[in-house]
């Protein structure tokens, strides 16, 4: 009996035999699946494009040269160095993948690639934008999720590289045959120029990305030194105050930037009809009030966002296309267009900045005696996503606090207004109300509550385009109605866009042009810009002159009588 029990304990029954046979097969299948997923992850990272419009199946059906070289070199190393190099390669590949993703986002929102030297600070602005548009909770979840995803990507790519390298090291003959076959395929594809779907089959995307990034870093560092020299050469920097803008003495000059007011608003077939009708109607209304307008185009130094680069480019006469240039100019004594008016001693200078919600040291460079920020305009209504208050309310407050009051005896006034209602995500968009019923802004509560939700508009390209058009119609209507209602014979209004809207609205290949208009009752003021050949009215013709935004300061100063001072070294 004991023998049979012992014998029974040492023998596997039918079910145990099946289980033992089943586990190795299951383990092999699982191992093969993990290896396949690791290979797909590594290959996908090696050929990942840096632009959304290049994403597609064809972008990933390629033979990466880096994979061929790695399959030859890594397995040949001793085990410990091999694992270290494989893991390090995975970390490097993960970093490049994150940078590629940042390039995609920056191309979509700012029309350029991510600058690894200068642009890290903009990620904080992106977080603030999410908070303002979608709420703090959603923004925190999005940020936490993004960080977790990035960390997971680093871990998975490092583990994948180690797994694949060890597999190749265990099977050197098969690895050599596979690498040789892939190398022949790569050379053949490259030699024949094979590129189905306009994407070359032979890829060296990662090496190219590393080289391009190194070049961009070098260019950024060199640009900083060169730009400092350019910024010091200021034709009007030493011009005495009595020789600046003599043609505008005693006038009420207003420079206004309309957020995201770009060429697409006037010429894109899906947006332009409504905006065009509005501009024509407002041109006629202003004409009835005695105002005349001329309009042209400026090419902005920024695209999709970073509005302050457009503002400072216009006011400085310098091409300020990145944060380093912006910081350099803000710390310099370069003459801003607004400071030119203050320097005369004949103008009071004031700024209305409803989008500013923290200290703004740039006030000194802009030469503004007084600035009304988001907290200085008495608004008690709801926020409209990113925009702290509707433009109509900001303009009414400007009228009550500034424009409606006489400047000091014998002085004119220079005002800088930054309107915000047409800032993305364009939801909800306010509507015009009776000017006499604006009060403290509480009347906008119902309007904000029943308007479009930012989350719905952000996720829908068609809605984004439609709401963008509505926001431009609202902002320009508010501004021109204010002028029609409160403008005087001395009022001179210059208004322009700071940049085009993001690529999701304007398209991936849209220009960087923005409309600019000059409006006044005094015909003599418009006669001074006859040589600009701008279009009559608020809508610039398609073939109206196009200048770089950085050209505006000097042309404007010259047109109104300013003369250059002694040059600077």
TrEMBL record:
Keyword Transferase: no
The entry's keywords: Membrane, Transmembrane, Transmembrane helix
TM ranges: 29-47, 59-77, 84-102, 138-162
Gene3D superfamilies reported in the protein's UniProt record: Alkaline Phosphatase, subunit A
Domain of life the protein comes from: Bacteria
Protein name per the record: CDP-alcohol phosphatidyltransferase
């Amino acid at each position: 009996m004991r023998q049979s029990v012992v014998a029974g304990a040492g023998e596997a029954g039918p079910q145990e035999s099946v289980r033992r046979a089943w586990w190795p097969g299951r383990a092999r299948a699982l191992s093969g699946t993990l290896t396949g997923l690791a290979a797909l992850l590594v290959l996908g990272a090696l050929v990942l494009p840096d632009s959304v419009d290049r994403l597609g199946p064809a972008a990933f059906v390629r033979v990466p040269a880096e994979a061929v070289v790695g399959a030859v070199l890594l397995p040949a190393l001793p085990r410990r160095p091999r694992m270290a190099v494989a893991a390090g390669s995975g970390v490097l590949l993960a970093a490049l993948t994150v940078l590629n993703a940042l390039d995609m986002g920056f191309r979509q929102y700012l029309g350029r690639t991510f600058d690894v030297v200068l642009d890290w600070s903009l990620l904080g602005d992106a977080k603030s934008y999410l908070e303002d548009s979608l709420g703090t909770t959603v923004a925190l979840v999005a940020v936490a999720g993004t960080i977790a995803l990035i960390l997971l990507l680093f871990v998975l790519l490092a583990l994948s590289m180690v797994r694949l390298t060890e597999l190749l090291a265990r099977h050197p003959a098969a690895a050599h045959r596979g690498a040789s076959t892939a190398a022949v395929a790569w050379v053949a594809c490259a030699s024949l120029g094979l590129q189905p779907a306009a994407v070359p089959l032979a890829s060296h995307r990662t090496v190219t990305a590393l080289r391009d990034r190194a070049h961009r870093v070098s260019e950024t560092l060199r640009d900083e030194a060169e730009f400092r020299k350019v910024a010091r050469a200021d034709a009007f920097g030493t011009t005495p105050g009595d020789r600046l803008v003599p043609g505008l003495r005693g006038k009420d000059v207003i420079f206004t930037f309309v957020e995201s007011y770009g060429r697409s608003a006037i010429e894109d077939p899906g947006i332009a009809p409504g905006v065009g009708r509005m501009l024509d109607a407002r041109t006629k209304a202003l004409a009835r009030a005695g105002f005349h307008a001329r309009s042209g185009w400026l090419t902005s130094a920024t695209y999709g966002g970073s509005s302050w680069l457009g503002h400072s480019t216009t006011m400085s006469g310098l091409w300020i296309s990145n944060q380093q240039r912006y910081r350099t100019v803000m710390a310099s004594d370069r003459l801003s267009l607004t400071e030119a008016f203050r320097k005369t001693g004949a103008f009071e200078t004031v700024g209305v900045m409803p989008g500013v919600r923290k200290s703004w040291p740039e006030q000194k460079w802009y030469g503004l005696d007084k600035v009304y920020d988001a907290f200085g305009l008495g608004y008690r209504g709801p926020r409209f996503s990113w925009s702290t208050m509707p433009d109509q309310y900001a303009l009414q407050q400007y009228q009550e606090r500034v424009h409606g009051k006489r400047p000091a005896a014998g002085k004119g006034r220079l005002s800088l207004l930054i309107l915000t209602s047409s800032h993305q995500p364009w939801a909800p968009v306010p509507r015009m109300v009776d000017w006499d019923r604006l009060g403290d802004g509480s009347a906008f509560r119902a309007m904000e509550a029943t308007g479009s939700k930012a989350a719905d508009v952000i996720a829908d390209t068609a809605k984004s385009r439609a709401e963008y058009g509505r926001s431009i119609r609202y902002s320009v209507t508010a501004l021109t109605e204010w002028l029609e209602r409160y403008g005087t014979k001395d009022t001179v209004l210059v208004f322009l866009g700071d940049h085009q809207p993001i690529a999701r609205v304007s398209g991936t290949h849209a220009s960087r042009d923005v409309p600019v208009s000059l409006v006044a009752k005094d015909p003599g003021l418009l006669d001074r810009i006859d040589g600009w050949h701008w279009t009559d009215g608020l809508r610039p013709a398609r073939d109206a002159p196009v200048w770089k935004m950085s050209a505006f300061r000097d042309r404007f100063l010259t047109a109104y009588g300013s003369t250059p001072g002694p040059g600077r070294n």
